[in-house]
Amino acid sequence: MNNWTQRDKTAIWHPFTPLEAMEAPLVIDKAEGVNLYTPEGKRIIDVISSWWVNIHGHSNSYLAEAIASQARQLEHVIFAGFTHKPAITLAERLLEILPDNQDKVFYSDNGSTAVEVGIKMAFQYFYNKGISKKRIIAIDGAYHGDTFGAMSVGERGPFTEPFDPYLFSVDFLDFPEKEKEQQVWKHFKELVETDEVAAFIFEPIVQGASGMRVYAAELLDRMIALAQANDVICIADEVMTGFGRLGTLFAADQLSHKPDIFCLSKGLTGGALAMGVTTCTDKIQSAYRSSDLMKTFFHGHSFTANPMTCAVANASLDLLLSEECDANRQRLNERHIAFMTKLEAHSMVRNPRVMGTILAFELNTERDTSYFNEARHHLYPYFIEKGLLIRPLGNVIYLIPPYIISDEDLDYTYSTMLSFLDEYNDLF
Ligand SMILES: Cc1ncc(COP(=O)(O)O)c(C=O)c1O
Hints:
The protein is an alpha/beta fold. The protein has two domains: about 5-60 and about 325-425, Aspartate Aminotransferase, domain 1 (Alpha-Beta Complex); about 75-320, Type I PLP-dependent aspartate aminotransferase-like (Major domain) (Aspartate Aminotransferase, domain 2). It contains 13 helices and 16 strands. It has helices at about 5-10, 50, 60-75, 85-95, 110-130, 150, 180-190, 215-230, 280-285, 305-320, 325-345, 375-385, 405-425; strands at about 30, 35, 45, 105-110, 135-140, 170-175, 195-200, 205, 215, 235, 260-265, 275-280, 350-355, 360-365, 390, 395-400. The model has no long low-confidence stretch (mean pLDDT about 95). The site of pyridoxal-5'-phosphate has 14 residues, from α5. Pyridoxal-5'-phosphate binds next to α5.
């Protein structure tokens, strides 16, 4: 173990990482484009955009300059009683590109807080109106973050088990895979028609952490329509799907009925700094517009709307809305689709799928397919050794690369995936 790794082990507790019996983390000294570099100069292609955040690649000089020049001008200011131009510009620009019904922007720190804010906003909406609606609907397998509210509306399993007694109660729908659509619709209808449901929260069209699982936009559209007709607030968690991941700027662009609340993060800042955003309709705010102080939304964080973060989010939007980025997303989608035909022909592959810039498939195995399965112990080091950062979700292997990835790096990624499937055929 070199010195830095030892010092890391002594001082740091890493996320989602057992404290013992784990490979030492790799030290990364610098990054450029899709590449991460170790101090020894090993190149690792980041084909999962560092937990799905890094849409324009690493150390982008345009984003770096936005942070640096903002840091010299105004690095931070309390956001209650004060405001600043980068936050105002960003809010206006987000409202410009979000569906028309979105009317106000609330800033926070990350995806989990964006979700917490969304849930709290919905609950307090009814509280302020003096309406008693206490139930909330979510979808099995959901991942909305690691804070308590976000955990409550997410899949209950080994990750949440120690906290289960403290999580609030939620009505979970089965995941609406094709065969279950009818049944899910029936269950949903029964619930929303009770008049007791305040909110419905969902990852639109693709559920990320449960394994890049896709469900029908058409069904979600009908669910939103029915929910809204029954005064149920629809919260779209677009933390993963937002900012072009599914091809369109937001997943909701593929729906005709628009959610009431959006939760955003990850690609919002191009992955350079942490930020959460929750947006809502005029209808939601109407319950808060009052001279009664007790109707205030009492939520905030020390770093709310940090100016450097707003500046880099503005710069990231410049890149995202460029023709070049659009063409790159299109190219990525076409390349993934072409590769999918090769995956379809492979005996080790089940259910290959492409959603915009994401490609995913399951290993065709009868073995344990949980997050803790055997495959990940082989898969992760295999790809790292080959210079690729790929982290499986259970037995799901997926790519969610920065949009700027070159054809050459994509070809290398695809061929290495095929080599892995051939070499490890027997193991699974
Ligand atoms: C859909 C979704 N919501 C919320 C979160 C939580 O975001 P964060 O990790 O920034 O708290 C994630 C993170 O992966 C996510 O995929």
